[in-house]
Structures are given as C-alpha cells and as structure tokens.
Amino acid sequence: MKICIFGAGYVGLVAAACFAESGNNVITVDIDQARIENLKQGIIPIYEPGLKEMILRNQAEGRLSFTVDMEDAIKSSLVCFIAVGTPPGEDGSADLKHVLGVARSIGSAMNGFKIIVDKSTVPVGTADKVRAAIQEELTARGVNLEFDVVSNPEFLKEGAAIDDFMKPDRVVIGCDNVRTAEIMKELYDPFMRKQNRMIIMDIRSAEMTKYAANAMLATRISFMNQIAGMCERMGADVMAVREGIGSDSRIGYDFLFPGPGYGGSCFPKDVKALIKTAEEANYDFLLLKAVEEVNELQKDVLAAKLIKLLGSPDQEQSLTGRIIACWGLSFKPRTDDMREAPAITVIEHLLAAGATVRVHDPEALKEARKYFGDRIEYSSNQYDILSGADALTIITDWNEYRNPDFERIHAALKTPNIVDGRNLYKPGRMVASGFTYIPLGRCSSGISGEVK
Ligand SMILES: NC(=O)c1ccc[n+]([C@@H]2O[C@H](COP(=O)([O-])OP(=O)(O)OC[C@H]3O[C@@H](n4cnc5c(N)ncnc54)[C@H](O)[C@@H]3O)[C@@H](O)[C@H]2O)c1
Fold first, then answer.
1. Which terminus of the chain is more solvent-facing, meaning fewer CB atoms within 10 Å of its CB: N or C?
2. Whole-number average pLDDT of the chain
C-alpha cells in the first residue's frame, strides 16, 4: 500500500519504518529540512533500539523515503498518517496547530480518495476539526473529493517502540466507514499474525482511549509514589507491598514502581490535556488533578533527601561545597528523550541549593547539554563522576546501574552515600557494605528486600 506519514519524530519514524518493513511504500514528510536531509543520509535524529537498522534496510530496498515535499507525498498516497507533535498550549490543552496545519496541506494537495489517520494524541473531537480543515481547503479549491478521517492512537513505549509496533497489545481504530476500516485492517494485518488485536470503535471513543490509557498509567505511578511515602513514614517496605498487591490479578505488577515522578513527552502533557478537556466540558476531573499534583511534589523528593542528608542549615544555599553525582538523565531507560524528565527538576534543585552536579547517562548527555549547558559536568563513564563526590543519586534505572561495582563506588565517593530514586539495591546489603543507603519507601531493616 502507498502511504505517507507526516512527522519524522518518535512516532512517525517508528511507524514509517515498521510499515515499510511489512512491505508498504512509505514516504515520511517533515517540515524540518535539516532532519530530512540527515535522514536521507542515514542519520537518525533519535535513539531508539533497532530503529536505525530498520530505517537503513528499508531505505536501501526502496520502500522508505524522506521528503519535505508534502504535495508529492499526498498525491502518491492512499493513506496519510498525521504523527506530528501536539505540545501543551499555555492553558494545558493540546495545541493542534501542527495537526490542523497538516490537514490543510492535505486538503490543498489531495487529488482523489484519501484516508487521513490521526496518529498524534489528540483530544476528543479533533477528527471533526481535521475533517473541517480539509473540507475548507477543498471548498476553496472548488473541488469535490471523497475522504475519510480515522483515529488510530499510538501506544508505543519509547525504548521498546519497534517491538511495541511490530507486536502490539492492541491496535485501536476509530472509524465510521466499513470500507475504510477494511483498508486499515489490511495495513495492520501483518502485525496481527499470532492473534487479531484490532479493536474497531467509533472515532470519539478511540480518541478518548489514548488519554484514558495514559491517565490510568500516570495514576498508578502517583498512587505508588504516595504508598512509598506512607511506607517510609510507617516503617514498611514499598517493594514488598508492590509484590503483595501486584500478585492480585485484578491489579498486576506494571507501573507500580515508586520513582522520582513520571516524565517524558506523553504522560505530563496528556494528563494536562485531559484535565483541560474535562474543564471545557464543565467536568472537574478531581482525580487527575491530584495525580498531577502528586507528581510535581514527587520530583522534589530526591533533592530533599540529599539536602536532608548533606545540607548545612547555616548556609544560604545548603549544599554549597557539596558534589553530587547523578546516574541517569533520560525520563526512562533505553531512550535519549529528556522531555519533562524528572532529572531536570532534581538537578535544578541541587544547583539552586549550591551543589556541584556531575552526571552520567548512556544516551542522553547530548540532550542534557541543551538543558544545562556548562552549569553541570558530564561524563560518559559512570564511575569517573564519583571521585570525591559527597553522594551518588540514581535518577533513571538504566541496566548498567543495576549491578555496579560497589567496591569501586565506595572507594571513589568521598562519603559513601547513595540516594536511590529507583530502588535498585537491597537496603540491608548496602548498609552492611558500609553505605548510607537511602531508597524510596523502604526500611533498611527487615528481610523482605534481602531474600529472593
Ligand atoms: N513519543 C511517544 O512515545 C509517543 C507515544 C504515543 C503517542 N505519541 C504522540 O504522537 C505525536 C507525535 O509525538 P512524537 O514524540 O513523535 O513527536 P516529535 O516531537 O518527536 O516529532 C514530531 C515531528 O513532527 C514534525 N512536524 C511538525 N509539524 C509538521 C508538519 N506540518 N508537517 C510535517 N511534519 C511536521 C516536527 O518537525 C517533528 O519532527 C504526539 O501527539 C504524541 O503525543 C507519542
């Protein structure tokens, strides 16, 4: 099938690569000329495991191309995917200017029946706006062409995006035309070989499904962060509690890890947007407002623990003269994405308190420089930043931090303090090895974290 994808970002590139991999002819369009020039030369703008290889393979085999020429891409495609950004506007609502901009381009260039697919995360009712924008252009051109608008929200996870796309838990298609639904089924059939996981529904329900999914996951994270806060105060171990509740099949284990708060390009903005959509419908989404507030507070927890441990109350900036080493900057492992990463808040707090901050991350150092410039020190060696530091804090749970050389850490740090925002280690063993170990929501006595 001939398709074009607007937006060469995380979602657009992964979708383009995977649709090309399954035999389609895919043209990827972006307004960012430099990005497209790089992609033509095999330079991939993001780090996502497996993506580069897949793009290069399909490019070489002639199924995948990159362009800034929208008109040509639209004219030669039956299906046009919109996978551009929907950043939060000033009031928290999703800013649809890129989505509607693409819709207008499609309306002004289309030359026959087209299926326009909203893959960007967009509020309920956006498909109607896309339809209206296209129709307006067609009317202005004085032509009468048929088209359908489909909602096909994307559920991929950065860090596992290729796998998620190739073997999806489900593909949601919001559609009001049987013929178009059949074409969408054909497009996704290669990813359904084991089991049909297509869920076809009306357009508004599909649009709402994406927000409901992200809101649910964000809620679980904030819930567990508050349970961790309670465990800390009551002498309980949140990791034991997680096992205790996760084993209930109605609850499950996923998204119940305490941490420094959720971040990334999706949860924060989607939670905000759903609260705003509710407001516009005269509905007070109380639960989500609390989820967001808890998350903001949670981002302060690691810095607060470090200040409590090392701060001098008699100094205006209580961490002046202290060196803090940070492991992990991206909002989660296996990505270089730092959008709304909790590390940004943690580090800003530490800098505001006067600390010298040194950081390591396997992939996100380049991105981090955009946020911090010369205000912090960077290293691509996780141990180098420890030398003479007053504490190590773990912000992102990259694999390389799970089982490090503790003797080397102990020897390098000026004082063997670890504030662990991801609960990677066993508290009792850390204390026995001479560390002052401060995890989230765990007591260092007791056996629950020690015996596995
Ligand atoms: N990143 C994720 O994990 C993820 C997961 C699911 C859904 N989503 C949603 O998918 C959408 C895209 O997210 P992303 O992370 O891929 O964004 P991104 O910022 O990585 O990429 C967006 C791309 O769109 C391009 N663009 C903007 N206007 C354009 C136009 N008129 N024509 C062509 N290209 C244009 C930009 O230059 C940019 O390259 C968002 O709505 C997001 O919420 C993201």
1. C
2. 96
